[in-house]
Amino acid sequence: MKITFPHMGNIYIAGKAFLEALGQEVIPPPRCSRRTLELGIKHSPETICLPLKIMIGNFIESIEKGADTILLVGSCGPCRFGFYSILEEGILRDLGYDVEFIVYEPIGEGINKLKENVFKTLNITNIGEVLKAARLGWRLIHKADQITELANETRAYAKDSSRVDLIINNYHRKVEQVFGEEEMMDLMDKTINSLNKVERKKNYEPIRIGLIGEIYTLIEPFVNFDIERRLGHMGVLVEKSLTPTIWLDHHVLKFPFGSRNEKEKHRLARPYLKTLVGGHGRETVGAAIGYEKRGFDGAIQLLPLNCMPEIVAKPILNRINRDLEFPIMTLILDEMTGEAGFITRLEAFVDLLNRRREEDSVV
Amino acid sequence: MSRYYMGIDVGSVSTNIILMDENKDIHYKKYMRTLGKPIDMLKEGIGEMERDLKKVEIAGVGVTGSGRYLADIIVGADIVKNEITAHAVAGLNFIPEVKTIIEIGGQDSKIIILRDRIVVDFAMNTVCAAGTGSFLDRQAIRLGIDIDEFGSLALQSNNSVRIAGRCAVFAESDMIHKQQLGHNQSDIARGLCEALVRNYLNNVGKGKEILAPIMFQGGVAANVGIKAAFEEALGQKVYIPKDYDVMGAIGVAILAKEEVKKKGRSNFKGTSIHNVDYKVSGFECDGCSNVCEVVEIREDGRLLARYGDKCGKWSNSIDKDNIKLA
Lengths: 363, 326
Hints:
The structure holds two protein chains of two kinds.
Chain A: E1 2-4, H1 11-21, E2 25-26, H2 34-43, H3 50-64, E3 69-73, H4 81-94, E4 100-104, H5 111-122, H6 127-157, H7 162-175, H8 180-197, E5 207-213, H9 215-219, H10 227-233, E6 236-240, H11 244-253, H12 260-269, H13 281-293, E7 298-304, H14 308-324, E8 328-333, H15 339-362
Parallel strand pairs in A: 1-2, 1-3, 3-4, 5-6, 5-7, 7-8
Helix pairs in contact in A: 1-6, 1-8, 2-3, 3-4, 6-8, 6-10, 7-8, 12-13, 13-14
Chain B: E1 3-10, E2 14-20, E3 26-33, H1 38-53, E4 57-64, H2 68-75, E5 79-80, H3 83-94, E6 100-104, E7 109-115, E8 118-124, H4 133-143, H5 147-155, H6 168-180, H7 185-203, E9 214-217, H8 224-234, E10 238-239, H9 247-263, E11 278-284, E12 293-299, E13 302-307
Parallel strand pairs in B: 1-4, 4-5, 6-9, 9-10
Antiparallel strand pairs in B: 1-2, 2-3, 6-7, 7-8, 11-12, 12-13
């Protein structure tokens, strides 16, 4: 069994080491590239949201490298993601690829099927081992996120922000060469060390922007034109409202109660949106208010074109923008998005936040 | 010899160069078509400026527009700013209490909302160019009239024809349909102006609080028909600044003036750059499957800049103090 999974930001780093530590052979897809996107566009329905297209590209590229089993998370929320695994399996079958799909459906959909899938993919036979494996997975994901966050922070404060890119590029290259948990942890620690050594500006108060919106678009840099890196180079400190750590904490670790972080978003969203609208629509609304309360300078909503839950959230964000006088910009992404226009909007938004701050300091 | 600040706006359709003195008065103005050759146009523009004005002292330079990074590499700018900020600054200089700026250029249109001299919100056209200058250009050709006469022709109409303006392609078929029905040219021209304005207000201006004073700038502001259509749709007077077509360049010249005052010197390489030979070459990086097309610019053989790579491997490999292209 040669396992692969779709790309979603830094998840492959933890996923690879985790499955390898459990004795599985893992073939992570090559990093998302133009070829990935072109393969995906060619074989996906035109009007489906962008993440599916990228995933199809990931799968095809992994299969080319020898993968025969695809690992995926399912969903039952009112968002097209719930339909992804079925659609993707159909597309790959039609293309003549003979691969096995293993879908981790939410625990609420029945524990037995999930248990069977977990045992099968993780090469283990009892619950005790599952818990041990889960702790390992959690540590890896947590650390991978920690590196992403530290890199973002260092970029904002660095005297020479391109040094951070060099460290991170090097880290990504080495991730593909190391094997298993121990080597991965070692590489991660070294990366954190180098990041901490980057010289920082003193007495610098960066503009702070919260990134909100659809989880895949937030996490996968290929899809969001590397927004974290670009803002970092402009000296902006970015924080994402959703990360793999936050997602796991809410949906797995704290199941069935949910994490405090996400429940707080629901509470904040309540005056505007009382109920689930699929995906992370409600969380987007709550996160925007949360960033305002924490004193952020602004927020940017990211969504793939025609993402239903985020479309519901968008007009509410306009309202929040007015009610709280909190700048929120929406950027819609798909394969047609032009990079130049995207950068112009980012720069203008940062200028806007800078000017607001200057005016405030005068008063 | 007078000291000037130069503003350069390298856009997709036009490249503009202006010279502004310490009192923010415009002394020289050049509007050129970019024609897809930004480097040549820049050299030509600066060369002609030197010929026209003989000896000038340039105290500072600002660049804006979609070609701003390229322009910076060529001229050595003191400030590189996006079009939205540049237009807002220029608009504020014209009407200090301006609350809304409508800017329609060749391929993009923007709305900038200001309150108390600060940009509080902005939007740009997202998916379609149906509300921009190139749309009008194209329809003028269809109607067989010169774009310069388009506006005045529209004003002659007493009875506009409603044309579907949501999509440039459908607008064209709808316009042909109206021509076949026998409507006259001026009614159709007015209908097109109204369609463009409707499209702008429904897309770019959607959800924005458009308060007076309202300014209208960008190349399309030359069209009196569009101005009239805006005034009718908004029920407000719309102001058009004298230098409506080079507002981006003016804005960035003002910003350059502030920047030079802070910095105490200018990065400008001098007007002689039009004699320098710039060579642009490209190669495909084979580092990963993105196969980025990396562009290299050489100034008389010396490597000036590299960009186009997603990962920063090439663009970060050159020492630059103040710009980041990646």
